[in-house]
Specification:
Length: about 325
């Protein structure tokens, strides 16, 4: 009798909590301690080092599964590179995006010459296994030299503003880089971005392309290349995990979150004093130091009268 190995075997927490922690860390601009605080507010006591280990161990599995099940990318590639400073030294983050905004691949290198461009092209062709119709880049000469050698029959368009789609795709990486206080090494940057980019790109719903009825009532829509494509992709990971758990003979675990008050009882104010109905007076303090004391006395007098009027009014709950 053949049995499949359970990837969650030996872990104290169920699979749903692990998936939720990895999803929070890669889908939003949150630090490990912020994810720990969010889980603690829901009654789950876990350290941030455990969340980091979950992200490194299961994040790669989730990213690879999302790459395998995503629809066929477009035939128009937008290529661009951006500066990344790691330990005081400039590196370059190479990125490829298709015409639909899907990130194809990323690569961190120390140079942006022809050899680096060739290496990035080979990595793209090895991972995607098809040749594009058009390549859109900026006016960097390394792209043209690498394209003439590796992709001689592909149309190449070079312009300053045509690859704005790839320029915009750098924004999530920049936000995470600022939140993480920069990357620690080239290996750390490549490892994190290869996991973060597929997961974060998968959860971008592109709300501006969906109507309100489609967004609310249509969880699954047909794909143009056959099969089904989810309109709400955040449900795909959890569906796959539950299916794998059921295939292994393990019951699905449902997490019940205790309901708590937003603030402790001691921090809730007992009374609230509303402002007068006439509104607070507009106080203009004198700007110069040589102003007379009479203006300051008038301002303090008006302020004291307002406080007395507020205290005489009855205190009621909102």
């Amino acid at each position: 009798m053949s049995t499949t190995s359970n990837p969650y075997r030996g872990f104290r927490f169920p699979a749903e909590i692990i998936n939720q922690a990895v999803w929070l860390y890669h889908c939003f601009s949150l630090s490990l301690r912020e994810v720990e605080l969010i889980l603690a507010a829901r009654g789950i006591q876990v350290s941030y080092e455990t969340i980091r280990e979950w992200s490194l161990r299961f994040g790669r599995t989730y990213a690879n599964s999302l790459k395998r099940r995503r629809p066929h990318p477009g035939d128009k590639w937008f290529l661009d590179e951006v500066f990344v400073r790691i330990r005081g030294k400039l590196h370059y983050l190479w990125r490829a995006v298709d015409q639909h905004g899907n990130v194809l691949d990323v690569l961190v290198q120390s140079r942006r010459n022809t050899k680096a461009a060739k290496r990035f092209f080979r990595k793209l062709l090895k991972g995607l296994c098809y040749t594009p119709r058009v390549i859109v880049t900026d006016k960097l000469g390394s792209y043209g030299a690498a394209k003439r050698e590796i992709l001689p029959g592909v149309e190449h368009r070079q312009s300053r503003y045509l690859n704005n789609r790839c320029e915009v795709s750098h924004q999530p990486t920049r936000r995470r880089e600022r939140h993480m206080r920069r990357f620690k090494s080239v290996r750390h940057a490549q490892q994190f971005l290869s996991i973060h980019t597929p997961i974060h790109n998968h959860f971008q719903l592109r709300r501006h392309r969906l109507s309100a009825n489609e967004y609310r009532t249509a969880p699954i829509a047909p794909s143009p290349r056959g099969g089904t494509r989810s309109v709400l992709p955040c449900r795909l990971i959890w569906t796959d995990v539950q299916a794998s758990l059921q295939q292994q003979g393990l019951p699905g675990i449902k997490l019940t979150v205790p309901r708590r008050d937003p603030l402790p009882i001691g921090e809730i104010p007992a009374k609230r004093i509303p402002l007068p109905s006439t509104g607070s007076p507009r106080i203009r303090w004198p700007s110069s130091r040589r102003s007379s004391r009479r203006s300051r006395a008038r301002a303090s007098l008006s302020l004291s009268s307002t406080q007395q009027a507020a205290q005489t009014r009855p205190t009621t709950w909102p």
